[in-house]
């Protein structure tokens, strides 16, 4: 049986309507009195108690800028990536289409320019409508702005569970507080400021906060260029972003848009002709997906992530990780980096071409810095951050240290064995002690027993031995023909292990250590006591690169030779500004004297010979087929051929190029492998890392400067003639000494082949 209506309260009757009107008027009267009348002017205990409660509510609202997107830029101002917790770009009111301002006011708050924050007429209308069964809101734009500001502050503080939503978890007290704050806000800010703030903070979509982000997301345009149909549609979305989403619910969106247009024409905001044309326009979106984070960077995801880690680990951006993350992802920062887009494009092309079809997941990496500033101009590797079919997926950066860590998420892979790219530092100590690079040494010595009298003033124990008679291997060269006398210069140019050890045997190992430390070479996992762990040069294997270090570390170290012996710490961030244009802490150029200028010049002289006639003769960079430029470099290959390098520099650019095994413990053999359709008995530095280096430097180095290197002192180059000697093999020599051979012009005497089957470069041991 149907429940009967009491005719006295039936709102369909005249009497019912009258009673409803009186009741609603009474409620509004009390509410208005509570909002506008001082407590002392109200009589009656109930009314007085309500007003006293109202007076205890806060009247000040701290309007902080809403969460805004942070942008990471390349050196030319192009965008590398956007970072945000809420995708929002703040714009001023004059950068918004007049249509969006009129549309929002028409549908959300017709009397916006007439009320003082709370619209009592609107409240009355809403109460009557709700009493009739048609629920209607009464919040003004100012009230909505207040609510959004409060919620934005809660989100920024990590208090999402306290966010208040109309009709969901907002009580009478919350509503009264909102009203009082709205009234106070109207006294503090102009209508234009409130409207601007509202349009910049309001939620349109999970990937679009504020009108600028919404314009870009839904229509790939700006707030200033919104058309009338577009503006009316976005104004309608605000009421229920999910229900009126034009992508998933285009019909709902059109109905709401047309309702907005009807309100606009009814209020004289647009003409009838404009209305007719707009409602006839189909709902069509042109979505620009919001891509948040470094993973979506189309040009430099790994460099971007390196920059992000630098900021997340910088106490200048907050006392703890959570505060720094809020600052970066909500602070609307503009981070200008050192990255050169042109250099980055070439670097990416080279590393992506090195492995090509790569089912075995061999890695390629290249990083380049400027001598004299340490600015990183390129950083690339042959992997993708976001998984793609047929691609090598990797989120760790091959080029940087593992020390840029966030919790247990290591940013960098931590490096690779540098092989013979470590040899120039022993050579540098030889020159540092006043010796000539053209001194003859006996490369036939292959045994260095445990009791060998190494000179080491650091007092650290010397670790390692090469002595087959005592159970270890004799020291190895890559080819048999180089166990002979040769100059220290020829030994470096041709990357001869036995000459490197013969060099080290006549210098202070502690001096080598000091040079390596001074040029920033480090490796291993950091600790609080040792943030840049030392590579111990008193461990003999490290003389020829058995300790892991990163490509960025090696590029920066070699840049020291190009910079006349001054080491500059690598930097990636040139400037950081907040949303108001204030400068925040960024990285600064930090350089120091590390090597004597004359020593740096001597090393440059020698490493030019690596490319002129030594182990890198097949990869000499050229501007054209016949034109070269001054450039110095060193090849490197470890024992297993699983880590191969070329590191080198011009006067204006230093680059580390690496190819090898980046997986697990990096123990795979780079031997008897097929890469890019070519079979290699042993992958060596000049084969893949070499062309990667050469092609990059040929394309980019000239724009950074390729001036001739300053000449070293003549005493470093000249040496009195030492006649060839014959020696009898001893316990320290397993091969007869030979007279110096006439240089054939190609060092190792190896010829290129389309499919290399030999290993002409050096091996670590």
Summarize the structure in words.
This protein is an alpha+beta fold. Among the domains are: 14-56, no CATH class; 85-279, Penicillin binding protein transpeptidase fold. The protein is 35% helix and 10% strand. A hairpin with a 2-residue loop joins strand 19 and strand 20 (678-680). The protein is elongated and about 105 Å long.
List the keywords.
single chain, 765 residues, Penicillin binding protein transpeptidase fold, 5-stranded antiparallel sheet, disordered N terminus
Overall spatial form: elongated
For the record, give the distance between the C-alpha atoms at the N and C termini, rounded to a whole number.
Answer: 99 Å
Number of strands: 20
State Rg: 36 Å
Strand order of the largest sheet: 2-1-5-13-14
- List unreliable stretches of 5+ residues: 1-12, 14-22, 32-54, 405-410, 723-765
Q: What is the top-level CATH class of the domain at 85-279?
A: Mainly Alpha
CATH arch. level architecture of the domain at 85-279: Orthogonal Bundle
Helical proportion? Answer: 25-40%
Largest sheet: 5 strands, mixed
């Amino acid at each position: 049986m149907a429940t009967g209506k009491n005719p006295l309260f039936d709102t369909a009757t005249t009497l019912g309507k009258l009673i409803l009107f009186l009741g609603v008027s009474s409620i509004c009267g009390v509410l208005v009195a509570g909002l506008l009348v001082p407590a002392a002017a109200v009589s009656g205990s109930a009314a007085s108690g309500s007003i006293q409660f109202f007076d205890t509510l806060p009247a000040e609202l701290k309007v902080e800028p809403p969460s805004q997107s942070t942008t990471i830029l390349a050196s030319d101002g192009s965008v590398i990536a956007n970072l945000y917790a809420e995708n929002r770009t703040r714009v001023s009111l004059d950068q918004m289409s007049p249509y969006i301002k009129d549309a929002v006011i028409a549908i959300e708050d017709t009397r916006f320019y007439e009320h003082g924050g709370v619209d009592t007429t609107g409240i009355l209308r809403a109460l009557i409508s709700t009493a009739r069964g048609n629920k209607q809101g009464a919040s003004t734009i100012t009230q909505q702005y207040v609510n959004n500001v409060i919620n934005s502050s809660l989100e920024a503080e990590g208090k999402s569970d306290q966010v208040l939503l109309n009709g969901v978890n907002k009580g009478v007290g919350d509503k009264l507080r909102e009203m009082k704050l709205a009234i106070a806000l109207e006294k503090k800010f102009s209508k234009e400021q409130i409207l601007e703030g509202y349009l910049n903070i309001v939620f349109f979509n999970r990937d679009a906060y504020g009108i600028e982000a919404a314009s870009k997301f839904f229509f790939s345009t700006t707030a200033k260029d919104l058309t009338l149909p577009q503006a009316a549609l976005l104004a309608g979305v605000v009421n229920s972003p999910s229900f009126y989403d034009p992508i998933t619910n285009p019909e709902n969106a059109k109905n709401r848009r047309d309702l907005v247009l009807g309100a606009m024409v009814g209020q004289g905001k647009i003409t009838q002709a404009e209305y007719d044309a707009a409602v006839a326009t189909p709902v069509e979106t042109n979505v620009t997906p919001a891509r948040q984070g470094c993973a979506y960077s189309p040009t430099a995801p790994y460099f971007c992530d390196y920059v992000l880690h630098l900021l997340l680990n910088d106490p200048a951006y907050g006392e703890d990780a959570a505060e720094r993350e809020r600052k970066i992802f909500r602070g609307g920062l503009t981070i200008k980096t050192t990255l050169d887009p042109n250099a980055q494009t070439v670097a990416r092309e080279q590393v992506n071409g090195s492995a090509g079809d790569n089912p075995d997941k061999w890695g390629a990496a290249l990083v380049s810095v400027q001598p004299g500033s340490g600015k990183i101009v390129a950083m690339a590797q042959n992997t993708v951050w976001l998984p793609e079919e047929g691609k090598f997926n990797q989120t760790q950066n091959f080029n940087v240290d593992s020390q840029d860590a966030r919790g247990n998420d290591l940013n960098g892979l931590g490096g690779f064995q540098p092989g013979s790219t470590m040899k120039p530092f022993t050579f540098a100590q030889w020159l540092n002690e006043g010796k000539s690079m053209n001194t003859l040494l006996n490369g036939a010595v292959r045994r260095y027993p445990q009791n060998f009298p190494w000179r080491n003033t650091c007092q650290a124990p010397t670790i390692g031995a090469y002595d087959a008679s005592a159970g270890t291997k004799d020291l190895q060269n890559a080819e048999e023909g180089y166990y002979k006398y040769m100059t220290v210069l020829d030994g470096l140019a041709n990357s001869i292990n036995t000459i490197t050890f013969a060099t080290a045997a006549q210098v202070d190992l502690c001096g080598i250590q000091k040079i390596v430390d001074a040029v920033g070479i480090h490796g291993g996992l950091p600790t609080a006591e040792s943030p840049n762990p030392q590579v111990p040069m008193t461990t003999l294997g490290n003389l020829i690169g058995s300790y892991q270090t990163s490509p960025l570390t090696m590029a920066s170290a070699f840049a020291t030779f190009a910079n006349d012996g001054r080491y500059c710490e690598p930097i990636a961030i040139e400037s950081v500004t907040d949303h108001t244009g204030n400068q925040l802490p960024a990285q600064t150029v930090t350089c120091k004297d590390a090597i004597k200028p004359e020593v740096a010049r001597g090393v440059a002289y020698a490493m030019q010979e690596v490319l002129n006639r030594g182990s890198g003769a097949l990869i000499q960079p050229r501007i054209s087929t016949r034109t070269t430029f001054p450039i110095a470099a060193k090849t490197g290959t470890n024992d297993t051929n699983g880590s191969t390098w070329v590191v080198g520099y011009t006067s204006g650019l230093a680059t580390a190029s690496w190819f090898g095994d980046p997986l697990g413990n990096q123990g795979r053999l780079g031997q008897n492998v097929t890469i890019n359709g070519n079979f290699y008995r042993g992958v060596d530095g000049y084969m893949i890392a070499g062309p990667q280096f050469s092609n990059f430097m040929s394309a980019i180095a000239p724009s950074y400067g390729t001036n001739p290197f300053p000449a070293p002192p003549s005493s470093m180059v000249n040496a009195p003639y030492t006649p060839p000697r014959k020696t009898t093999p001893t316990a320290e020599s397993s091969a007869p000494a030979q007279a110096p051979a006439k240089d054939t012009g190609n060092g190792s005497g190896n010829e290129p082949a389309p499919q290399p089957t030999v290993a002409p470069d050096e091996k670590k041991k």
